[in-house]
Each structure stands twice: as structure tokens, then as C-alpha cells.
Amino acid sequence: MSMLPTRRLPEKPDTIAPDGSEVRLLATATRGSMAHFRLAPGDVARAAAHRTVEELWIFTRGRGRMWRKLGGEELTVEVAPGTSIAIPLGASFQFRSDGDEPLEAVGVTIPPWPGDDEAYFVPGPWQATV
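Below the sequence we write its predicted C-alpha cells.
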């Protein structure tokens, strides 16, 4: 494995996230990993939380909403290209694609994504469609 990783955005998804969104894997380093997420127009992801990672996202295409809840704080925000959000460790979150084109974001996971058991499902504000 190279110490200087480089990866282009794949045309097809590498996997489907536990929340139901398409995932295209990007560069990974020892202390973080990056991925591209896509949710089709009109779709609503499953509400989830993470056991050991936090994430930073920037939306790059489409429009939608992101719900997050941590402790006594709960917030739903409209998202569009240029909107960045943080998903702290243990926060519940759910997102939806409200426009005519896919909702897309690039996310950084700190530390790197550990595997399939990382996410667990939680109650969210919307009925999931994926």
C-alpha cells in the first residue's frame, strides 16, 4: 500500500452504507478516511448513529435535509452544495434528498471507517425509503 494514496471518484458505488446511501470510497490515511455518498432524488436514508467514529460532510450536489440529535440538542437543517456539517461521535442522524437530482456529499470519517458493525439504527424523524 502506498504511503501517498490517490483515488479517483468511481463511477459505480463500491458499497451501500448501512443507512442505504451509495458509497464511493476515496482516499484513506492512518487517522481518517473519505467517501462520497449519494442518495437518489426523493429517497430518505435510514436513521443511524456510530459507535466509534465522527464524521465531517460537505454537500456537493442536490438539495435536501439533514437531521441530527445528540443529548438534548436536536437540529434539522436544509443542505445544498457548499453546506458542511459535523456528525459527532454518538450523534443520531438521518438525511433525505428533496430535489430533482441526487443529493451528494463527501464525508471524512475520523478515525477511518472500521467496518460493518460501526453503524447502528435509531429512531428518526422520517420514514426511510431505502
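The chain has one domain: 15-120.
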